[in-house]
Amino acid sequence: MYKSDALAAFIRCGGSRGLFGGPRGTARQQTLEDIAANIRENRFKRIVVMAGAGISTPSGIPDFRSPGSGLYDNLQRYNLPYAEAIFEINYFHHNPDPFFTLAKELYPRNYKPNLTHYFIRLLHDKGHLLRMYTQNIDGLERLAGVPPKMLVEAHGTFATATCTVCRRDYKGEELRNDIMKGTVPRCSVCKGVIKPDIVFFGEELPRQFFTYLTDFPMADLLIIMGTSLEVEPFASLAGAVRSSVSRLLINRDLVGPFAWGSPCPNDVAEVGDVVSGVKKLVELLGWMQELDALMSVGTEAS
Ligand SMILES: [Zn+2]
């Protein structure tokens, strides 16, 4: 796996950029300023965004994968056989209580979108967004006003739910009272447990995920933010754009193909605090006022 990924990176950077000479062999390293200019001047109109927990931690949502601050460390009180069991479908069928206790904490509307979510909304409003692929199940993209059709919620959503027995569909809102009361929601028809459409370990990815097969070849810019690129198959999407396509990483650390040594000239990494990185891009775009306006409306509405 690692070997073929490294090979893919070599082909991506060397193959397309003339590693062995040729007119494109001296391609200039792109910068955040170049990316901003290309967005501003409408050369990037089909932007795909990939995001993970790092865009939601600034909203106060616990990151389940960071040791120390992570949710897994706070799970002892649930008396689980091991931490990941909370998201395992077989364990859920055996005992749904820990998941619903957690769901109460994670439940959307307990948290507010932050600048990164509103930036994606603004990309959409301005006609630059092709799609957003998120690993997050907090629904903050929707709360920021990104339309559901622009979203691929790769690990599912609380917005919809399904009876685990008769497969009847429910709206997330219909479970809200039960979840907030700490009661396991039950189907009105068969009394089976209703599970929010969060993708558990041992479950298939939502069909929507496979939209990537058409989205990624069409993308003209890939923005990756707030993700460790460690969970497959999500992580591999970073290599699914055409080799000539610019990729911008806004993240606390270099991850995935950005951490593999010699960078591609069209890969740009803005390493550090994610909100600050996005803010820097927004300032270069000259969109700060519009973003502030969106954010203040969002705050009033909630
Ligand atoms: Zn049912």
UniProtKB/TrEMBL annotation:
NAD(+) binds at residues 53-57, 63-65, 135-138, 227-228, 251-253. One of its GO terms (molecular function) is NAD+ binding. InterPro entries: DHS-like_NAD/FAD-binding_dom, NAD-dep_sirtuin_deacylases, Sirtuin, Sirtuin_cat_small_dom_sf, Sirtuin_class_I, Ssirtuin_cat_dom. The lineage of its organism: Eukaryota, Metazoa, Chordata, Craniata, Vertebrata. Residues 25-288 form the Deacetylase sirtuin-type domain. Keywords: Metal-binding, NAD, Transferase, Zinc. Gene3D superfamilies: SIR2/SIRT2 'Small Domain, TPP-binding domain. Zn(2+) binds at residues 163, 166, 187, 190. Its EC number is 2.3.1.286. GO terms for cellular component: nucleus. This is NAD-dependent protein deacetylase. It comes from the Eukaryota. Pfam families: SIR2 (PF02146). The active site is at 155 (proton acceptor). It catalyses: N(6)-acetyl-L-lysyl-[protein] + NAD(+) + H2O = 2''-O-acetyl-ADP-D-ribose + nicotinamide + L-lysyl-[protein]. Its cofactor is Zn(2+). Belongs to the sirtuin family. Class I subfamily. PANTHER family: NAD-DEPENDENT PROTEIN DEACETYLASE SIRTUIN-3, MITOCHONDRIAL, NAD-DEPENDENT PROTEIN DEACYLASE SIRTUIN-5, MITOCHONDRIAL-RELATED. Binds 1 zinc ion per subunit. NAD-dependent protein deacetylase.
